[in-house]
């Protein structure tokens, strides 16, 4: 089969060239079509259900809304887990599905179950709705409205009804969240004294406002053969219309709304606000990208739309961006592009030096861009995006992509040099040389592809992160195989038409003349060499416990996010003042461009943040413009010292995308989540505080915070059933006053074109702004009297839950922290040990660890199972090729020897054993096996040609020195740019490059010296199987 492919290419040379040109064209077209992102989207398949229940405390939200929705979701197919948060006025239920479930199918399943859940939720307590179809990377563009002379209410109106509406029409945008400012309402602020004067009840006011704000349709009539539609117009359209609504008649005189209330424009009850650069509040918007869309394309379309919007906004108003992911995407992809370019140049230099022929080096080099272009075609076909990891696969494989071509060209040149026949024999000679190495090339590249099989088996976060890399490498190696067998022989027929003489290569000759005497000495001391190699292996393995472990190094996004947590009793205004006070402290750093504080939460569909939580976005200058600090860690530490000046405030440093992804994966916005499960909130709070104290004493713990589930002051109004029974009242009559007079109620809307604004009824603030006034709130009795609320209810001030969090229908509390100055693995191990020794948990309570640690454990466990199976598969392939257990075992020995350099490189560089480092070891195994195959197969060939064992080893090692060194050098030097890169995303690629480069040093040395020695030893004690 392989020979037929080579022969077909030799017969149809023009067809192969046309095919190559088509691949080039299709590759560039596919490259332009590829979605471009900064990183793979590791977000889970998640459907969120948001339910707003204004005024309800967390306990009622949990019982009346969250629980029915959770029950409805249980039992859905392919569901992984259900998490929920019940807080003041809001329920958020997050339904996680397996990764193979289509998001739209998942939403359909949730929507269907939600219909049954709605029947269990009491009427009027909220209408559940699905969250936007987005992910942790979805907040691609954030902006604020600049408008001198405009109030916050006016700017918010422009945002909601102009900017938001137009931005939602941009392809790839799923939602716009408005944050900050004041949402306009038509407010009826009732005066209970005047209501008592005119003997008007709350029910009468609610009913009359609703009945005086209706449009109706009267169908149509036919007149003179024409239809006339009939409309009854009764909507209110202004404050004056509302003021002039008649409520009752007293003594023949109408009493209007204006007689018992103030009717004004007022702000909706706020649960969040935004401030910026210590200049006060602003109105902002957050653009959410539709899941799966091209980030760069969406942002470009948003920017074009913003230009159009700015041209149409009122004079002085402008949309100003303060964060977008376009810069991050460009920086991340540039990191890999630069590494590819620089690595490619280094590979070409090595090829020129070792091949010693410009034409042969050019042929081999051509397979690099061609293999990459074929990879782009397949990436586009399978719907993959171009990002740090997928393009990183090309950077990692840049050296491997030329291996097949090197073997093919080198063998062709050798045959042409040996054959001095005329030009007519050139093509047959090239064909013979190509057929000779065709099968070994297929075998070698197959091994490289098989080596990366473990990456395809990774699950969840690590699978989404590293499978694009594995796919890209496999696509590129497939291209390398195709072009090595077809295009390379064809190009040789043109480039070497008149034959070629292999000229002496000074570098190769020098290396061979140095190498052979050393090898002779080594073979004569084979026992010492074997023992030395074994001791090196054991010594390196002993270093593993000292390496430290982590999941994936943190990627630098170029922007900081500081999460602030205040006392649960903190009001929105107080939280805003504290955040605003922090802004100038952070602005003192010259490295900072803007500081934006987001207090509380935005609309439904955003984060369910309480008002005592703030997120401060710190937009940074490019790192090359920094002047007072050397790196980001130093900047964060100095900022932490500044914020420590605010006593009693908890905060942790993270990054915008990292924070969102951490929250989606573990439920907390930090690297590590320690979750305590149990039923009693008081016990959870008590034991959670004990765990927090234990964690605080562990070196490396930073930004430690315990989830605030308690500490929210409540005014509890408990209706006295005996008292209301004597008065002939029911509970609902009292509750309506609490809900509407004190809390407020929406009774309709005012329409202004496409705009609509709520009509909101509530007692004037002067009658409800403290506990005594609430006690004395007047309630109508059946006999027409008025009595204070305190006479029919027990009113007390207590401390209740702030929020109730649940995972899989079980209450829990989380303690979150970041880890600094040490590895995640040892930190968690010490934490688990200390908690087990120092914390005694009641029956039914237990602790779990989540976040990056959970991902790391899962990935390492999977690799620990799959990597040995992969090595076994390679062993079987080697056995089937050499038909010798001895030879297969000898080649596999190269794998553990390759580990030596990788471990030493990690140890001396101070890097941790992470998933990227593990991927580096996997790539290293492939090259190590490949070099072993090159040496052993040639030894066997020479012995079959009649050479003695000693001569076969010496001659074979000498002649295979060049391909072994070339393979190692192109693979390692191709990664040098990633090793020294400081660009965005280099943090993830550096451990991988470090392992491969370090491992190739030891692997190559052992391949050239230890493997020939062991071959000699094994053959002397030959046992046939």
TrEMBL record:
* Pfam families associated with the record: ACR_tran
Describe the family membership recorded for this protein in Swiss-Prot or TrEMBL: Belongs to the resistance-nodulation-cell division (RND) (TC 2.A.6) family.
Compartmental location: Cell membrane
Please give the Gene3D superfamilies that the UniProt record associates with this protein.
Multidrug efflux transporter AcrB pore domain, Multidrug efflux transporter AcrB pore domain like, Multidrug efflux transporter AcrB TolC docking domain, DN and DC subdomains, Multidrug efflux transporter AcrB transmembrane domain
Keyword match Transmembrane helix = yes
GO MF terms held by the record? monoatomic cation transmembrane transporter activity; xenobiotic transmembrane transporter activity
Q: Say yes or no: keyword Transmembrane present.
A: yes
The record ties this protein, via InterPro entries, to: AcrB_DN_DC_subdom (IPR027463), Acrflvin-R (IPR001036), CusA-like (IPR004763)
What's the name of the protein?
Efflux RND transporter permease subunit
According to the record, the segments passing through the membrane are 12-31, 339-355, 362-382, 388-409, 441-458, 470-496, 529-548, 859-879, 891-913, 919-940, 961-980, 992-1018
What keywords are assigned to this protein?
Cell membrane, Membrane, Transmembrane, Transmembrane helix, Transport
Cellular component, GO, one term: plasma membrane
Instruction: Look up and give the membrane topology term.
Output: Multi-pass membrane protein
């Amino acid at each position: 089969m392989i020979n037929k492919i080579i022969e077909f290419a030799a017969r149809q040379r023009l067809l192969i060239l046309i095919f190559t040109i088509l691949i080039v064209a299709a590759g560039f077209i596919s490259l332009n079509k590829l979605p471009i992102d900064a990183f793979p989207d590791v977000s889970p398949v998640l459907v969120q259900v948001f339910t707003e229940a204004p005024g309800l405390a967390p306990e009622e939200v949990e019982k009346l809304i969250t629980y029915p929705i959770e029950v409805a979701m249980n039992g859905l197919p392919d569901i992984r887990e259900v998490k929920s948060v019940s807080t003041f006025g809001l329920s958020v239920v997050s339904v996680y599905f397996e990764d193979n479930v289509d998001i739209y199918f998942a939403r359909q399943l949730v929507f269907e179950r939600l219909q049954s859940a709605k029947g269990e939720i009491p009427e009027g307590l909220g209408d559940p709705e699905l969250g936007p179809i987005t992910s942790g990377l979805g907040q691609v563009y954030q902006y604020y409205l600049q408008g001198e002379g405009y109030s916050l209410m006016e700017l918010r109106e422009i945002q909601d009804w102009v900017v938001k509406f137009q931005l939602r029409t941009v392809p790839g945008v799923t939602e716009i969240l408005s944050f900050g400012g004041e949402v306009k309402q038509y407010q009826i602020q009732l005066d209970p004294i005047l209501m008592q004067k005119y003997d008007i009840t709350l029910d009468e006011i609610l009913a009359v406002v609703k009945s005086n704000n209706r449009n109706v349709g009267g169908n149509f009539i036919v007149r003179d053969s024409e239809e006339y539609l009939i409309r009854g117009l009764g909507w209110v359209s202004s404050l004056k219309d509302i003021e002039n609504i008649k409520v009752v008649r007293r003594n023949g005189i109408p009493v209007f709304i204006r007689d018992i209330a103030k009717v004004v424009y007022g702000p909706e009850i706020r649960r969040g606000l935004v401030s910026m650069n210590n200049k006060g509040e602003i109105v902002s918007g957050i653009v959410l990208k539709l899941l799966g869309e091209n980030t760069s394309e969406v942002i470009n379309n948003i920017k074009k739309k913003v230009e159009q919007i700015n041209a149409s906004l009122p004079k002085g108003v402008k949309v100003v961006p303060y964060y977008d992911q376009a810069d991050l995407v460009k920086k991340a992809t540039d990191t890999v592009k630069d590494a590819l370019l620089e690595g490619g140049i280094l590979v070409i230099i090595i090829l020129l030096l070792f091949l010693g022929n410009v034409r042969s080096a050019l042929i081999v080099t051509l397979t690099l861009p061609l293999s990459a272009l074929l990879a782009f075609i397949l990436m586009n076909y399978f719907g993959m995006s171009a990002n740090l990891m997928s393009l990183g696969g090309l950077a990692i494989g840049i050296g491997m992509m030329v291996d097949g071509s090197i073997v093919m060209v080198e063998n062709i040149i050798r045959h042409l040099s040996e054959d001095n026949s005329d030009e007519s024999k050139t093509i047959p000679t090239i064909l013979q040389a190509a057929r000779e190495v065709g099968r070994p090339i297929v075998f070698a590249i197959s091994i490289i592809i098989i080596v990366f099989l473990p990456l395809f088996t990774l699950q969840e976060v690590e699978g989404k992160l590293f499978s694009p890399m594995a796919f890209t490498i496999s696509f590129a190696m497939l291209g390398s195989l195709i072009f090595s067998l077809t295009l390379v022989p064809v190009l040789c027929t043109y480039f070497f038409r008149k034959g070629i003489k292999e000229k002496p290569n000074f570098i190769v000759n020098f290396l061979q003349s140095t190498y052979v005497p050393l090898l002779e000495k080594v073979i004569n001391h084979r026992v010492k060499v074997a023992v030395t190699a074994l001791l090196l292996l054991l010594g390196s393995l002993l270093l593993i416990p000292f390496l430290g472990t982590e999941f994936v190094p943190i990627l630098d996004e170029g922007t900081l996010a500081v999460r602030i947590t205040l006392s649960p009793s903190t009001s929105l205004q107080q939280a805003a003042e504290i955040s605003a006070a922090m802004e100038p402290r952070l602005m003192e750093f010259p490295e900072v461009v803007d500081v934006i504080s987001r207090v509380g939460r935005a609309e439904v569909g955003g984060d369910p943040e309480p008002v005592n939580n703030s997120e401060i976005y710190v937009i940074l200058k490019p790192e090359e413009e920094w002047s007072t600090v050397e790196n980001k860690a130093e900047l964060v530490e100095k900022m932490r010292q500044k914020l420590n000046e605010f006593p009693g405030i908890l905060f942790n440093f993270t990054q915008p995308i990292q924070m969102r992804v951490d929250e989606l994966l573990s439920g907390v916005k930090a690297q590590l989540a320690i979750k305590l499960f149990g039923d009693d909130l008081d016990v959870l709070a008590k034991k959670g505080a004990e765990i927090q104290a234990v964690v605080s004493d562990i070196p490396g713990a930073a930004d430690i915070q315990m989830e605030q589930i308690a500490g929210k002051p409540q005014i509890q109004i408990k209706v006295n059933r005996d008292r209301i029974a004597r008065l002939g009242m029911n509970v609902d009559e009292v509750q309506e006053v609490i809900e509407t007079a004190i809390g407020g109620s929406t009774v309709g809307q005012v329409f202004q074109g496409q705009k609509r604004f709520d009509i909101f009824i509530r007692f004037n603030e002067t009658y409800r702004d403290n506990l005594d006034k609430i006690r004395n709130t007047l309630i109508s009795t059946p006999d027409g009297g008025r009595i204070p609320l305190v006479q029919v209810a027990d009113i007390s001030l207590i401390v209740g839950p702030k929020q109730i969090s649940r995972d899989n229908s079980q209450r829990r509390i989380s303690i979150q922290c970041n880890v600094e100055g040490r590895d995640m693995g040892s930190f968690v191990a010490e934490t688990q040990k200390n908690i087990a020794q120092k914390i005694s948990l009641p029956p039914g309570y237990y602790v779990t660890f989540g976040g990056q640690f959970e991902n790391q454990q899962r990935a390492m466990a999977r690799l620990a199972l799959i990597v040995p199976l992969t090595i076994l598969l390679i062993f079987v392939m080697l056995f089937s090729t050499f038909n010798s257990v001895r030879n297969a075992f000898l080649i596999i020995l190269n794998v553990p020897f390759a580990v030596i350099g990788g471990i030493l490189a990690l140890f001396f560089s101070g890097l941790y054993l992470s998933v990227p480092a593990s991927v580096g070891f996997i790539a290293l195994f492939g090259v190590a096996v490949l070099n072993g195959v090159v040496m052993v197969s040639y030894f066997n060939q020479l012995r079959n040609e009649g050479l003695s064992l000693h001569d076969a080893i010496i001659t074979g090692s000498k002649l295979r020195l060049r391909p072994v060194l070339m393979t190692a050098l192109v693979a390692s030097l191709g990664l040098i740019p990633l090793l020294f890169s400081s660009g965005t995303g280099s943090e993830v690629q550096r451990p991988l490059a470090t392992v491969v480069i370090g491992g190739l040093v030891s692997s190559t040395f052992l391949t050239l010296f230890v493997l020939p020695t062991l071959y000699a030893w094994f053959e002397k004690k030959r046992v046939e199987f």
